[in-house]
Amino acid sequence: MPPRRYQRPEARTEIWGSDMAEDTGTHIGRRLREIRTWRGLSLRATAELAGYSESYLSLIERGERPVDKRSTLEALSGALRVAPSELTGTTHLMPGATEEHSAVRVLRLALAELDMRDPSEVAPRPLPELRPELKRVNTLRQACDFAGLSQVLPGLVRDLHAHVHQSSDEARREAHLGLVDCFEAARAASKHLGAPDLSQVAARHLRDVTDALSGAEWTGLAAWARAQAIGSTARSRALVLTQRAADDLAGELDRPEVAQVYGSLHLVATLAAATLGRFDEADAHLAEAADTATRAAETNFAHLYFGPANIEIWRVMVAVERGEGGKAVEIARALPADSLPPSAERQSALYLDVGRGLATEKATRDQAVMAFRHAEDIAPQKVRANPFVREAVTDLLRRARRDAGGRELRGMAYRMGLAG
Asked: How far is residue 379's CA from residue 191's CA, in Å, rounded to a whole number?
């Protein structure tokens, strides 16, 4: 089933309107206090290490200020010397995430035991039998159906790996191309489900596969996947990696595939620079990506969906990271619904960030709930596992009044395992 496309004008009006017009601490705040205590750090010492005031950190711990930006999350995790996932929690901490937890476990087992350099003794199924499954992997990935992916990927990866070592050159190349899609699907699923270590394993497998494929686009794609995988734990390294990889591709931009990877690398660099507070660099990378999008043919190489509409989706995300929620909503409002990529991953990213932007203002919090609900309708597994949505919903739930909007919010919180 193809990803759902949300184009109803009334739905968009519910979210941002025609004009811009149960008490619990936030999840990250609770985890912050627990880990700080475990480290034996005072509130003041932690605040100084993270670069924030003691009063601001106290508000976060008491659940009176949500952590709604990557830069804040990563500063806090750095001060406590833990991975960001230790503060956000992973799928095993989510009461309502049984399927997602199972998906991570299955993917971890499938990827951990694999080494592309090792010969395979498996008798693989014929490639014609694998092609429908590979098509299904791409459909499931774009729909953010991670539980479904975990049912298909292990056996498919095993058989494609066997073809790499046992088949003729033509079949071997087809197997390599199939593995690129499989490992990229596994990387994205692991990232969205809060398993950054597994995302990095998948990215390394993808790099091993692309080494066997000729073309600058494959080298660039491996660097893009690697930067995506390490982004939340090593933002500076991701920025250097994407800049270097983009420079290596700059001489071959007449090839559409290379241009799309080049532009996508600049988008990842944009987010890395913005999260580090280097906003001039972020603007420069975003401008380069936008300029590339106007010149590059849209062939959707490697399912990147690189193009003008996707640039605007990233522009919304960067505005939220800069604390410009109102600007993020204005950018999104100007983006025609029928121009959105036919990908649940991309569409949900837009509504997710719109919700984050709307949640920053008291007057638009009800609209934020509707934005999160639309994102959840499009990609429920991804949205329910997203730490920033979970943090925002927990904060909104604390503030909600007993009205229709409150009931909608409490329903979403219940599905996310945040309320009984």
From this structure: 14
